[in-house]
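User: Predict the complex.
Assistant: Input components as received:
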Amino acid sequence: MTQVEDNSTILNIKGLRLESIAGNIIVDSVDLNLKKGEVLGLIGESGAGKSSIGLSSMCYARAGVHIAGGEINLGGTNIRSLDADGRRRMRGKRIAYIAQSATAAFNPSHTLMDQVCEAPLIHRLMTRTEAEAWARQLFKALDLPDWENFGARYPHQASGGQLQRAMAAMAMSCRPDVLVLDEPTTALDVTTQIEVLILLKSLIRQYNTAALYITHDLAVVAQVADRIKVLRHGKEVEEGVTDQILHHAQKDYTARLVAVRGAAASERAVSATVKEQNVLSIKDCHAYYGNFHVVRGVSLDVKLGETVAVVGESGSGKSTLARVVTGLLPPKSGDIVFQGKALPPSLKERTKELKRRIQLVYQIPDVAINPRQSLQDIVGRPVQFYFGSGRKETLERAKELMRLVELPEDFLQRRPGQLSGGQKQRVCIARALAAKPDLIILDEPTSALDPLVAEEILTLLRKLQRELGLSYILITHDLDVVHRIAHRTAVMLQGQFVAFDQTDKIFDNPEHPYTQKLITAVPEMRVDWLDEVLAKRAAATA
Amino acid sequence: MKIFGHKPTTSAWFGLGIISIFLFISVFTPWLAPYGQSTNVGGTWDEPSATMLLGADQIGRDMLTRIMYGSRMTIGVALAITLLSFLIGIVLGFISAVLGGWVDIFFTRLVDVMLSIPGLIFALIILGVFGSSIPVLILTIAVLDSTRVFRLSRAMGMNLTVMEYVEAARLRGEGLWWVISREILPNAWAPLVSEFGLRFCFNFLFIAGLSFLGLGIQPPYADLGGMVRENAAAINFGMMAPIYPATAIALLTVSVNLVVDWMLSIDARPSGAQAEL
């Protein structure tokens, strides 16, 4: 920390109120105070209004939302009273924004250097040469590869983690007083997340920038924030120093948020009724997209009533493996045996009966169910299709399925648009169960959901496995989830399994270096976790 | 009042009103028209009077009667053409999008070839060869117009087939027809309906254009485009005769577009407002 003497308030929000055009209240009388060099974590579920608060600190509101009341003071000026021109002069220069998805936030037809230098040039803070020199310095500070020439690249020539760092450089280009970081690491893999986190933290410290850190992940925010504000339904639940929120939460809701993340390490509740009979076994499977060798010789077996997790980062080929099992992508070579019989590789060759026995649950429930069909159609169709049931039987079965996934029966008349994310995922599970399958492939079933909702879905999945004797293949990048429900775990790297064993053994005694890296990269719910990791690394290199 | 679950704007109400009047007149023409469509009741280009509200046409038929029959014919034919072209375009477009591969290549290249020949010239050739009867007219323009519908529905189908709910239906083993009619079509409805309005206008004008050239609907049947041509010479004498059918064409076109604009705005407006700067 370079400057500690100056700790005056830089951003002060009083009684902020955001309303939608329809008159719904998005954010209700939230106060916020940020001192120079301080990091405030904003945490909450989706719809809690945390991003809206982040944007309104720059006096900006998304389409359909407007700032209805409150005061926003940035360095002593009430920016709500500024005209459009005044706001433009303030944005980027005094307060800057880092968005969640860097890949979507960069303009693909300009070089990174042009985009990073844009703000200081527009605000006439630096000449082009100065701006470029400063950008290179930032690239270096952010540990970007070949930092001297990195700016010449176009966005598609950089990886997701690199782009996220380039965006941090863009935000820092005018040396703003306040940074707004909106889920800057959420879209990244765990091993990349930790690197970006380390660099963001050191950048903020180095330039004594104040920051609003918006995220839904308590463990992440614990590493960077001095204070944490917990939000729910647009209202403040509580605010406190990071350590206090983590260990002595005042409110029940905060305590539950902390508990969900904390439970992962301690509690494991896998069902114990695994039978010694193989439902599925894959031997030496190879699959390609065009000429690209995605799955490189994978062997896997799933027993009756067992959950096998396949873990890996994006691009490791785990979703492709799911497509191979479902028949959407016929493998080039390798045997797949399902319930003792060879499984035809392509979907076309599989009988209706075989299709019925293997079902898939998707990652994003919003696009996995047809928005124009009622739940009765969505859940009833497989019943009708596979078992040829009449109207009445189908309706009865649909009601039974709704009970199984713990949704009210009268939801059958609803359409997906009237459901929440977690409810939609329950509908997806009900649709899979409607076919009375033997094997369900869960492709990231909880990663699009908020932590508390995800927890409920996991509990439901465990319950269903116990009651119906289902086998699951769980595709995920979230090691917490794996640890909770998987009997055995396969770690996938570049299309191959680097480890495949009992989940306990993988976690307690990771042999392969990649498995170790993966496990140690998951943030823990402790304030000093990141510093410990850094200390360990320093010790290892020394 | 709401239509399709949305409240029409003032201009949309205006459009809807005019369209309903046109439709009402078209359906009940024989009962509403004061005279028969080919009855001579006056002299050439008679001025409007109490018995002939809009005067007479070039051979002394009642202009108002002719406009009513003309609207009935033009709207009827344009509607038939648009329905047929949408049926062909949507079915083939969605099949191309869902099946892909050779089927897709075959249909898209075929459409490219058809689009490479100017539509009017193509229609003139076919109507010249087969003669201009109403069924030939409908079929020709419908096939020509279906190429555009094909393009639109294929593009929308492409966007929708990659949705996971469509993949889920395929994984279940559903057939092509189910996927098209139950999974894709309901989600493509809104843009298709507004496109229907636009294509209806174009077809309506296209027939009027063909009639103007003498290849559209043949006498003694009345149609609005033909009437403009037949009465065009009256302009030279400072008389209003061609203005009436031309106004009818303009009124119907503008009304349909007002309604379509409103429908498109429903689809393009996710949250109802601009961002606050």
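The CA atoms of residues 176 and 425 of chain A lie 41 Å apart.
Let me know if you want any component modeled separately.
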